Amino acid sequence: MKYSKRAKSRVSIFSIIVIAFLVIYSISLLLPILWGFIQSFKTELEYSMDVLSFPKKWHFENYKNAFNLFYTQTFDKNGNIIVVYIEDMLFNSIITCIGSALVQLFVTQAVAYVCARYNKFKITNVIVGIVIVTIVLPIVGNTPSMITIIDKWFNSFDNIWFYSTVLQMNFLGQNFLIFYATFLNESKTISEAAQVDGASNFRIMFQIELPIMKNIFFTLVLLTAVANWNNYTTTLLYLPNHPTIAYGYYRFLYVKYAQQTSEPTIQIAAAMIVMLPMLAVFIAFNNKFMGNISMGAIKE
Amino acid sequence: MAFSKKMSKRDKKDFLFLWAILIIPLTQFVIFYVIVNINSVLMAFQKFDVRNGFEWYGFGNFIQVFKDIGSMTALKYAIKNSIIFYVVSFVINNAVGLSISYVIFKTKTIGKIFKVIVFLPSIISSIVLISLFISFCDKAIPQFAAKFLGIQDMSGLLVNVKTEFATIIFYSIWISFGGKVVLLVGAMSSVNNSLLEAAEIDGAGPFREFTSIVFPMIWPTWSVLVYTGIIGIFTLDMNMYSFKGSGARPELYTIGYFIFIRTTALDGIRYELYPYVSAMGLIITAIAVPLTYIVKHSLEKFGPSVD
């Protein structure tokens, strides 16, 4: 009993230390963002003099200037320079991020469905095996080969539609396992009843099985789209002349054109503009992000 | 079960439906995974000529890679830095992360607010976070040190070459640490409470409980994270491209960064570099695959038993 009391007090002291660490860690994550937000309302002179205080006057025009100066230059197919403004980057982001997430997850879900429901055919076991092996198997340095094949075989390098559709029609990755496990655990009662009533396989899939998964599907689309939205390196590799918002911000920071600014406060304001859409999505759907998914259609 | 005359009408319908769904994704897989990787292997034995395209080059690229490992400063640093980063992040994420996760699990202190905050780096673009982090390290911290700690003339952490590398490592670990803790706490939550209660009744302390019950129970989850993370030695770039673009000093290179900057096509596709990158990728894969499986096998063989 004495030992147990000593053990409990050791846990308590350690707990206090850990909780203090977590509080400090959480503050440290928020600090650069909050600090940046406050600095974004300063003039360049005020910022250079003192970065620890609040602005003497809040310069909201920094955001207007950041919006107007947020552009980059790329090349079209004929090699002509074109200017890409924020609305073009927004369009690129929507297509490559949301569009490709929808395509990829629809295909993944469909393949997972047939593998779970039609596992009397051996090919389904092969597909599940392929997914598991490709998740674990580390392959490095095949991006040059991918770019070469896209360019030489399909003449579609830097093609936003090819990237968002054809390249996304794969079923590899952990999302397949999530759908697959869910379909395996889902009761077949409704679909068997529909089959008895004469419904076709397509009808069962699209009108019964897939709608049951809509919560999971929506959550995974959300997570995938957010990850795609924020990932600028993939755009840099495959779509260098179709900058997304994230990639556009990278070029705004590092590649300066004559009319653009080096003012740090406007650069920070631009960072806040880039951050805003995803923060809004997160606030609106934070339950989905934090894993609150309800499943199932059968009422017992 | 192949399509045969012995199949029932139902089975034939199911077979046709199955292939109607699978034909496009399987074709995509064959072209953009199987053929891409075969082509990557072939490319490693080729060189690119502007007039003739890809030509056979034998082992020339591999010889060049091994020569460069011995002579190229950037590559030597890349290998060294990649190993340093992996070891440091492994120790911190596991030694520190596991301990913190266990205490959170025991005391049930993790609230939704903490989960929301550690999720933020996944929501916000890395380039945005890094640009804010750079400004904070190079402006706010030196001014704070001067104003409140009396340390004058402190240069920014990312401007000072002595602190630059450590700061970048710190960022890479700091930004993902919380997410890993949440993951481990989630794994620990699946441990059966009755086991923990029985251990407490028998007088087991926290250390004994962790080593004899909790850690063995989360071992399958933890070991998957370990051996699938092996590839990170060769692919992670510590967000170097976001910090430095393509202009990082050789002393900051990692293997992932070295390969990445040779693959980008900002000024057009650089086919002349691709065979070299493919050869390097093949060498890395030849090391990473057996290493992953050795680690996986060792963890499975020598790890604690759930029983």
Explain this structure to me?
The complex is a heterodimer of chains A (300) and B (307). With 300 residues, chain A is mainly alpha-helical. Chain A is 68% helix and 3% strand. Chain A is built from 15 helices and 2 strands. Chain A has helices at residues 2-39, 44-49, 61-69, 86-117, 122-136, 143-152, 160-164, 174-185, 189-196, 201-212, 214-230, 233-238, 245-254, 264-284, 286-289, and strands at residues 71-75, 81-85. Chain A has a two-stranded antiparallel sheet with strand order 1-2. In chain A, strand 1 (71-75) and strand 2 (81-85) form a beta hairpin. In chain A, helix 4 crosses helix 8 (174-185). The longest helix of chain A is centred in the N-terminal third of the chain and has 38 residues, at 2-39. Chain A is globular, with a radius of gyration of 25 Å. With 307 residues, chain B is mostly helical. Helices cover 72% and strands 3% of the residues of chain B. Chain B is built from 12 helices and 2 strands, in the order αββααααααααααα. Chain B has helices at residues 9-43, 60-71, 73-107, 112-123, 126-148, 161-188, 193-201, 206-228, 232-235, 240-244, 255-261, 274-302; strands at 46-49, 53-56. Chain B has a two-stranded antiparallel sheet with strand order 1-2. In chain B, helix 3 (73-107) packs parallel to helix 6 and helix 4 crosses helix 6. Chain B is globular, with a radius of gyration of 25 Å. The two termini of chain B are 39 Å apart. The mean pLDDT of chain B is 87. Classes of the chains: A mainly alpha (300), B mainly alpha (307). At the A-B interface, helix 1, helix 4, helix 5, helix 6 and helix 10 of A face helix 1, helix 3, helix 4, helix 5 and helix 6 of B.
